[in-house]
Structures are given as C-alpha cells and as structure tokens.
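To: structure desk
From: M.T.
Subject: fold request, one chain
Message: Could you run this one when you get a chance? Sequence is below, nothing fancy, just the single chain.
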Amino acid sequence: MKYLYQQLLAFWGVIILIILIVGTSFTQLTKKTMQDTNYEQLRGYAISAWRSKDSINPLPGMSDQDIINTSFHLFEGFLSSQDVQFVFLNRDMEIQYPENADKTIDKTLIKANWKGLMSGNEEYVTVNKDIYGEKNMSSYVMLPVLANSQSGENTIVGALVISQPAKNVSDSVSAITANLFKGFIISSIVALMLSYLFASFQVKRINRMRKATKEITSGNFDIKLVTNDKDEFDDLAEDFNKMAESLKESREEIDRQEERRRQFMADASHEMRTPLTTINGLLEGLQYNAIPEGQRENAIKLMQNETSRLIRLVNENLDYEKIRTNQISIVVKKFSATETLKDILTQLEAKAESANDQLILDTTEEIDVFADYDRFVQIMVNIIQNAIQFTQNGEIHVQVQKGYLETIISISDTGIGMTPEQVQNIWDRYYKVDPSRKNTKYGESGLGLSIVEQLVRLHKGKINVQSEEGKGTTFTISFPDIEIEE
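Reply: Done. Structure tokens follow.
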C-alpha cells in the first residue's frame, strides 16, 4: 500500500475514532442526564401529590384514604398530558390507589424493590414495561411513605410509585443520535478531505527527497533541499543536504586524486625516461665502440650518476607515499635545534661553496625543539639544499626562536625567488619552479618540498613560505612543544 493511502487511512481512522467515542459518550451522558432530570421531576410530582392531601377540605363521611385518593386523582388530571400515573400501596403491598387495580397493575417490579422501600430507600428505575406489564419503556420513581405514629415517631406506612412512559427521553435521545449521525457523516467527509490534503503534503515532501536522491544517483551533487527547521522532515532534509555536500566534496577529491594520478604517471614517466634514455644511449655507444677510449670512464660515471638518480627518485616516491598514508612512525623528543642546525650547515658547507653561497646561523643561544631527530634533519636538509640550488653568489640565513609553546625556524635566501602562482604550487608533487631546468642543479625530482610538507604535518606543525621574484625566499617552520610517540 502506498504511503499516501497509509497516511490517509491513519489520519481518517483516528479522526473517525475520536468522533465515535465523543458521540457515543455524549449520547450516553445526555441520556443519563435526561433520565435523572425525569426522575427528579417525577419525584417532585410524588412529593407534591402526597403533601396536597393536607390542603383538601374533606367532605362529611370521607376517610383518610379517600382524601389521599382524591389528591392523587387530581394530580393525575393535572398531569394527564404527560401520562403520569400514581400507585399507592400499604405495608402489606396492597394497592390503595387506584382502587380495584390489584388485577390490572403488574407488581413484579414493585416486588423486586419492595425490601429496599421498606428499609427507607428511594428507588429509580427505567425498564421496558409499563405499570400494567405491557411492553412500553417507562420510568419509575418509588418512594417510601412516612406517617406519624401514636408514639410520635415517623413510620413507613406504605410506598408511592409514580410512573411515566419514557418515550420523551427515548425520543430526545433518538433525535440527538440522529443529529450526531448527520454530524458524523459530514465530519467524516471533511475529515477525509483534510486527511487527504495533509497526507498529500507529507507525501509531497517525501517525493521531493526521492527526486533529490535520483539527482544524486545521476551524479548531480549540487541539489539542495529547502528547510524550515520545523519538524523531523526538515531535519532529514538538512541531513540530506549535508550528505550531498559531503558526496560532492568526495567526488571532487576523487577527481583531484585521479588528476594527480594521471599527472604522477606522466611526471614519473618523464623523470625516469630521461636518465633511462641517457643510460641506453651510453650503453649503445659502448656496445658499438662509438665512445672513444678516453671518454669511456666518464660515460660509466655518468651512467652511475643517472642510476643513482633513478634510485633516489624511486626512494623519494616510496617515502612520499608512506608519509602521505601515515605508514611511517615518528618519535618526537626534545633536543637542541641550535646544535643540530649547526651540524647540518657544516655538512652542506661544501655544496654552498660550489655555488659561492654563505651559510649563516643567526642564532647562537641554545634553543630546544620537540621533533623526530632524523625527520627534523631531513626537513632542514631539503629546504637548505633547495635554497642553495636556487641561490648563486648569495647568502642563506638560518634562525631559531621560541614562540608560544612552539619552536620557530626560518630559512631565508637571496636567490631567484618565486611568483605568487609558483608559491601556491611548490607543494605539489613533481612541481618545479622552472620546468625548463629539469635535471639540472635546480632540483632533480620535484618531490623534496612535498615530502617536507607531509613530515611537518606529521609533527602537527606548520610551514609557510614568503617569496618575491628576484629577491629571495623565506621558509618558516613551527614545531609545537609536544612529545609524540607512535
């Protein structure tokens, strides 16, 4: 069954059930109220009829029973339009009024309640029999009758029964029931229409989400549902929007990764093809004796250099992937950054001299750093070598200082510098500031800074670069003062 019809039946069923419960309860309460009112009215008639005997002037020769009968007869006359009947019985359950009615009046109901009457209780009954035993819904009020005895105490001398056909009550209840039924029919139709409108509104919201889901399935992640923050459907729509945004970002990341993969394959092929071509050419020259005897040693040395370069390229790629996928472990400990940088500059001094560069450590005081020693050296060597490669006849300054819960190291050179666009791309794998300078002293693989960025990330640190074309570059690396063990 479709959700629309489920909602329609649910809403309509609840409304109809409420109407039935309210209607039935109202009918029963109305019926009881009318019966109680009728009982109270009959009781008032009975009390008035009994008391009225005292206001009758008796004729000569009239007995007390004659006076009582006269009073009842007069009241029955007054109430003849309401079909009210009086029956008076003495303690022996003998009918005193109406006269000679023992054989016509049915005493079954009176007998059933006689014990209670003689105990002083008032009885109120509505049964499907009239006072003559005929099938006719009637209401009865039975009252014990008290009189003063010779001792001055009130004693029960009999019972007064007043009855009336309950047709007025049943007719009124029937009229109310008929009106309620008409109202029930009208309410059912209105409830059906309102339920359909409300169910359609809910289903429309669900269909809107289904349509959006199909858009997602077809690859359209720009879909966005309007929300008003009113109910659970709006919460679901908000969650759907977040999911769509997340899927869009994932799709974009997949596209970026695919583009990087293609670029990696192209760059790796290019980087490896050049040394392999060189080695292959030299081998063919040696094979066909195209290389003079005096140049063979240089050729072998060149092949060794190109082979070493290929090995470094492969190792750097492996390192990069391990770092990027968190497959390496780092142990961050506290050690002297000043002493370590002093040792690094000493090791790179020969390379700097070949480029007529000066390596200067601007910090003399002992400053500690929290880092993995080997990876710290790898980061510093990569950046300083990079500065040497892009600086001729210049200076490279290294400075260490303490920040707030961190150690900050800056490496500045007076080299060729970079444009803003180049600064944005230097972290990409295989990117080189000057593509025409591949396989020269201006970088071999283009992986160094990519590895540096990943290593700094593993230290939970930060790395920034500021550069101006023709004036030099400054790298700033910060290491937080925390120990990390993996």
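Reply (cont.): DSSP finds eleven helices and twelve strands in the chain. Let me know if you need anything else for the meeting.
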